[in-house]
Every structure is written in structure tokens, then in C-alpha cells.
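Researcher: Here's the sequence for the chain we discussed earlier.
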Amino acid sequence: MSEDQKHQNDSNEAQGISKNKFPYYINLIYRWRKFLALHLSIVAAGAVIITLIIPKTYTSSATIIPESSQSIANMILPQKMTEGLGGAIGALSGGASNQTNTIMSILKSRELAVKAINEFDLMERFEAEKLEDAIEFYREMTFVTIDDEQMIRLSVNAKTDFFSFGDNVDETRQFVFELAEFITSELDRNFTRLNAEKAKFERILVEKRFMENQEDLRKAEQEIMEFSQKNSMISLPRQVEAAVETAAMLEAEIIANQIELAALTQTMSSSRPEVRQKQITVEQAEKKLSEIKLFGSSQDSLRLLPSFRAAPELLMEFVRLQREVSVQNLLYEFLIQQYEQLKIQEAQQSPSLQFIDRPAVPTKRTSPVRSLLAILLFSIGFVAGMAYLAGYELYHDKYKQLLKHSIQQARKE
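Model: Thanks. This is the structure I predict for it:
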């Protein structure tokens, strides 16, 4: 075959390649199969070596459930008074979110970070020159998240050294467990302390209000006692009811006597003793009735009956005084109960957080996932090998064509 024909075949092959690339790559793999086999063997061995020598990450975690806290209003006031205010009181008190914010603040606080750094000598472990650098490393290895169920998850991560085997891996696993355990212990201790301080503040607030309530109750009781003594009141509603019944009886007695008097005057003269006695009886009954209606009775048997004129005002004042005593008694009952509860809570020193999962020594590394890493490195190696071969053949074909063209030109000249 002449040089011109070979050049034409190469051109046709190049045109075929541009039209359909898939057969070209199949053909490329087949023609360079030995090279690719060697290349991929080296890549696979390298991937295995890399997965063995890179640092391994271990994680120890804990899960915390915040409790929903009651507001002072909910604890002091009776249920009937707070039924319609549940949403508003919950929004003001914060409920579980208030406790969640407290936990998050403690976990992210500088004080806790410094304690952990000093406890585990993290400045030397991280080779940090300044405390701020060690705090930054500490915060990079601790993660705090809140899931959809409002549970708080604390995770502590630590990496081994390169070429880590045996003792270094065991030391890292034990380190993340001890650090996570230390953080949760400090969290529980600080949370309990803050709760005690909050209870003390609330106890002082309730105690102050309790003292005021005692004074208000004493004044209300004194006022209702003075009112009763002044107006000869024992049970005003019953006394008013008795006054109405007495007036009704007197009205009936007057009517009956007037009927008898009219009957007597029809048959006897007004000077007769019987008629005169009946007239006196009617007059006395009318006098008693008028006295009850206007001023009340001054007789011993009727002196506890209030007058009709003064009854409405007395009833209104009595109801007001009685209502004040009832309100102060109600507040007293709930304040004394809350006061005792807050004193107990203030003195409480036992752990108060609820842990679903406590920190444990990790038995399995978090990363890297060796299988995925090996597959990724193998894929990158294969793609890189194919790209190299395609580039090499393209450059080689163009170089050959250029060389052939130069030789042809030289022969013609």
C-alpha cells in the first residue's frame, strides 16, 4: 500500500471516530488491555494502601430529651384560670424550647470548652500555641444538633494518626468516649446549678408575693369583721331573707286584724274595749312593719334584721368584702404550695437531664468508608487511564500525519 493510501485510510478512520465514539473506546480498551490491566492493578493497590494509612475518625455521641417546664403562672393559678391562656403562657415561658436553649448555650459555652481543654490537655494534643486555637479545634470536633422531635444530639469526633494501628486506634476510641462523657457530666452539673439558681430567684419572687398576700388577707378579714360588728351582721343574705319573711308575716297579721276590726265596727261602737284592743293591735303591727322597712328593728327579737332601705347597700358591700377574702384565700393556697415546691427545687442537687443515649466507646469508625473510598479511587484511576490513552493516541495520530505530510512534501521538492 502506498503512502498516499495509508494517509487516506488514517483520515477515514479519524472521520469514523468523530461520528461514533463508543466503538472507538471499546477498541481502545481492547488494544491497550495489558496497559490498562497493569495501570488498574497499581491504582487498586494504591487505593487499598491509602485507605489503610489515612486517619480514621471515631465518634461517641449522646442524646438528650429536654423536658417541658411549667411557668410560674401555670403552677400558681388554678387550672380553670389558665385554660384559655395556655398558648400565651406557653409562648411567654418558652416550655421545652427554653430548656433546649439553655442546654445549647452550655454546650457551646467557652467555659465548658476551656474545662475540656484543661482536663484532656488538648493544647498539646492539637499542638496549639494559643488557647483560642485549641478552642477552635475543640469546637470543630464537637457537634450539637436538634432533630425534628426536638431531641438534642451531641457528637464528639476524633481522628487517629496516619499509619495508625493497634494502640493508637484504641487510644482514640477511648479519648472520644471520655471527652463525650466529660461534656455530658459538665452539662448535667451546670444545668442543675442553673435550675437551682432559677428556682432561688423564683422562690424569692414567690416569697415576696406570699408575704404581701398574707398582709392583704389579714386586712380583708379585718374589714369584713368590722363591717359585721358595725352592722350586727352574722350572715347577711340569711338576715335579709329573715327580714322579708318577718315583714310578710306582719303584713298578713295586719290584714287579718284589719278584717276583724272592720267586722267588730259593724256590730259594736268604737268605744267598746274589744274594738279599742283590736285597733291597738293593728297600730303596733303597722309600726313594727314600718320600722323594719325603714330602719330595721331595735327590739331584741328583731335587732338582727336589716332595714329594707339599707339592705341593697349592705349586700353590695358584704359581697365585695367576701369576694376579696375569697380571692386572697385562693392566692394563699396556691402561693404556699408553690413556695414549698420552689424551696425543694432550690435545694435539689441531683441530675435533672434525661439521656436517651449515654456516651459509649465506639467500636466502628465513622469515616472513611473503605469500600466507597476504594471504588472512588479505582474509578478515578480508570477514567484518568482512559483519558491518557485517548490523548496519547490523538497526539500520536496527529504527529504521524504531520510527519508523513512533511516527508511527502520533502519528496516532491
